[in-house]
C-alpha cells in the first residue's frame, strides 16, 4: 500500500493519478474529508481506503506492515493565515509525528516543504542544508515549513529514506478549490472568461516594473514525476528544490493564458493587498542542481506548453487530472 496525505488536495490528488497510471492501485488516501469541495479530485481514482487525518496514526499502528511508501503532502498552505498555532499543529507537530512513525516502522517518506522558506531570497535559492538555519521566511506558513526542515535534518534517527521537497509556484489541474491560494493562471482563466481582462498586482518595488515580478512556475505534472522518481530511487535522502530552474514574469504567464484562450490580451494592474504587501516575493528561482545530481534527468515543461495544456485540456472543458 502507498499512503498519500492531503490526498483530496491539489498536488496530492494529481500524484494519485500518476500512481494509478503506473498501476499502483492500493492507495490509502488521508485527508480531512469533511471539506467536501475537494472530494471531486478523487472521483474515478482507484483507491484502497479513505482514512481521516485525525485517525491516521491509529490506522498506521494496525496496518504498517502492509505500507510500502508514504507521501506526506497534507498541510495548511494559506500564506495569508497569521495564526501560528494552526501551522504548529498541522505543519510541524503532525509532520514530526509522521517522521517518528516512519522511523519506528522503517517506512520511506517524501514530504512537502516550500519555496516560502526562502523568504525574500536574499540568501539565494540553494537547497544546501547549511543554509537552512539562516533562512528567514516572510510569513507563518513559511516559518512552519522551515521549522520542520531544520528539525528533520537535525534528527539522529531518520527514516531509511526520506526527502523533503521545496515546491516552488505550482500550477495545474485540480486546484479549483484553493480560492485565493490558487495559481495566477487559474485566476487569469476565470477573469478572462468572465471579464475579458486580467488584473495583476502592481509592483511596489522600484527594481521591478508592473507585471515583471518573477517566479519559478512549475507544472504539477512535472512535480508528481519527481515524486514518482523518488519512490523508485531511494538512495539519496535529503531536502530538494522542486521548481524548473527558470524564473518567468507574471506578464509571461498572463499573456500565455490569453493565447491559450485565443483571446486578445487586456492586462490591468491594482495595488498589492496590504496584508501581503510586506511579505511579497518579487523573485524566486530554484537551484535544481541537487536533484539533477542524484539522477533526475527529465526536462521540465516550458511555461508556454504547461499553460496551453492546463487551459485547453482541463480548465476549458472543466476536467480533473
TrEMBL record:
Residues 2-243 form the NAD-dependent epimerase/dehydratase domain. Its cofactor is NADP(+). Substrate binds at residues 169, 180, 187, 201-204, 215, 280. One of its GO terms (biological process) is ADP-L-glycero-beta-D-manno-heptose biosynthetic process. InterPro entries: Epimerase_deHydtase, Heptose_epim, NAD(P)-bd_dom_sf. Pathway: Nucleotide-sugar biosynthesis; ADP-L-glycero-beta-D-manno-heptose biosynthesis; ADP-L-glycero-beta-D-manno-heptose from D-glycero-beta-D-manno-heptose 7-phosphate: step 4/4. Binds 1 NADP(+) per subunit. It is an enzyme of class 5 (isomerase). Keywords: Carbohydrate metabolism, Isomerase, NADP. Contains a large N-terminal NADP-binding domain, and a smaller C-terminal substrate-binding domain. PANTHER family: ADP-L-GLYCERO-D-MANNO-HEPTOSE-6-EPIMERASE, NUCLEOSIDE-DIPHOSPHATE-SUGAR EPIMERASE. This is ADP-L-glycero-D-manno-heptose-6-epimerase. It comes from Hymenobacter aquaticus.
Amino acid at each position: 500500500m502507498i499512503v498519500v496525505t492531503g490526498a483530496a488536495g491539489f498536488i496530492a490528488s494529481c500524484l494519485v493519478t500518476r500512481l494509478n497510471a503506473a498501476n499502483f492501485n492500493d492507495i490509502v488516501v488521508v485527508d480531512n474529508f469533511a471539506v467536501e469541495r475537494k472530494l471531486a479530485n478523487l472521483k474515478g481514482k482507484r483507491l484502497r481506503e479513505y482514512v481521516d487525518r485525525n485517525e491516521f496514526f491509529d490506522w498506521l499502528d494496525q496496518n504498517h506492515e502492509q505500507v510500502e511508501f508514504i507521501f506526506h503532502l497534507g498541510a495548511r498552505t494559506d500564506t495569508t493565515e497569521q495564526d501560528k498555532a494552526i501551522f504548529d499543529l498541522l505543519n510541524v507537530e503532525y509532520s514530526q509525528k509522521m517522521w517518528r512513525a516512519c522511523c519506528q516502522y522503517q517506512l520511506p517518506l517524501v514530504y512537502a516543504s516550500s519555496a516560502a522558506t526562502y523568504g525574500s531570497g536574499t540568501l539565494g535559492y540553494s537547497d544546501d542544508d547549511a543554509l537552512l538555519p539562516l533562512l528567514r521566511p516572510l510569513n507563518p506558513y513559511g516559518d512552519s515549513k522551515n521549522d520542520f526542515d531544520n528539525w528533520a535534518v537535525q534528527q539522529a534517527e531518520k527514516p531509511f529514506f526520506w526527502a523533503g521537497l521545496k515546491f516552488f509556484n505550482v500550477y495545474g489541474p485540480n486546484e479549483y478549490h484553493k480560492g485565493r491560494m490558487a495559481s495566477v493562471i487559474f485566476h487569469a482563466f476565470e477573469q478572462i472568461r468572465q471579464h475579458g481582462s486580467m488584473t495583476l498586482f502592481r509592483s511596489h518595488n522600484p527594481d521591478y516594473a508592473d507585471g515583471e515580478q518573477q517566479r519559478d512556475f512549475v507544472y504539477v505534472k512535472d512535480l508528481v514525476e519527481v515524486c514518482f522518481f523518488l519512490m523508485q530511487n531511494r538512495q539519496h535522502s535529503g531536502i530538494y528544490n522542486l521548481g524548473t530552474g527558470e524564473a518567468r514574469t507574471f506578464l509571461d504567464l498572463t499573456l500565455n493564458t490569453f493565447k491559450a484562450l485565443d483571446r486578445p490580451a487586456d492586462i490591468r494592474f491594482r495595488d498589492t493587498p496590504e496584508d501581503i504587501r510586506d511579505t511579497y516575493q518579487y523573485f524566486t528561482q530554484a537551484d535544481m542542481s541537487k536533484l539533477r545530481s542524484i539522477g533526475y534527468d527529465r526536462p521540465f515543461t516550458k511555461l508556454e506548453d504547461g499553460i496551453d495544456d492546463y487551459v485547453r485540456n482541463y480548465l476549458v472543458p472543466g476536467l480533473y487530472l
